[in-house]
Amino acid sequence: MMWVYTIVGIPAFYFGFDTSVLGKILIFFVVSIVFFIPLFFLTVIIHHKSFKTDEDIERFNALSDSGKGKIIGEYWSP
Asked: Which pTM value belongs to this model?
C-alpha cells in the first residue's frame, strides 16, 4: 500500500508545493509517517489477536508452507 503512495506521492509533492526541496522532503516524510504508524499498529493488533496462546503459535509453526498459506487465506477471505 505504501508503494502506491510513494509512486503517486513523490511527483505530487514535488510539483504541488511552492516550497524548497528540503520542505517538500520534510512534508513527504511526515505524511508517510502519519500513514505508516496507524498501519503498523493495526498490523500489530491483528497479529496479537490471531494467536491467543503459545499452543496456537506452535500449532501454526508446525504446518507446512502450503498449510500456513491456506489458513491465512481462509482467515482473510470473506
From this structure: 0.45
Q: How far apart are CA 40 and CA 38, in angstroms?
A: 5
pLDDT tens, 35-78? 888 888 888 888 777 777 788 888 888 989 998 888 888 877 76
Amino acid found at 44:
V
- Tell me the Cα Rg of the chain: 19
Can you tell me the distance from the alpha carbon of 76 to that of 15, in angstroms, rounded to the nearest whole number? 38
Q: What is the dihedral of CA 60, 61, 67, 68, to 10 degrees?
A: 80
Tell me how far apart the 2 most distant CA atoms of the chain are, in Å: 56
E strand residue ranges, the chain: none
